[in-house]
Amino acid sequence: MATVIGTGLKGMGCMRAASIVGHRQSTLHVQKLTRCCSTENTQEPDILDKTKLLKSDRMKKKTGDDEFIPFVIRGKEPQSIDRHFKKWTVFKDMKHPDRHNVMTTEQDWTKVWPTSGVFRWSSVPLALRQGVIRNETENEGIIPDKEGNTELIKVPNFLHLTPPHVWKHCQALKKFCTPWPEGLDSKEDCRLHFPVEVVTSDYCFAGPSIRDPRSRVVTVKVKLSDLELDEHARHKLLKLVGDRYDKDNDMLIFKTDKCPTKQQNRDYAIFLLTAVYLEAWKKMPWEDDIEGDDFLDYQWNLSKAKDRTVLNLMSMAEGDQNSVYHNEEENEILEKEEVKNYAKAISKIYDDEESIENLNDLKQSALNMLQLRTS
Question: For the domain bounded by 187-288, which CATH number is listed?
Answer without folding.
Answer: 3.30.160.20
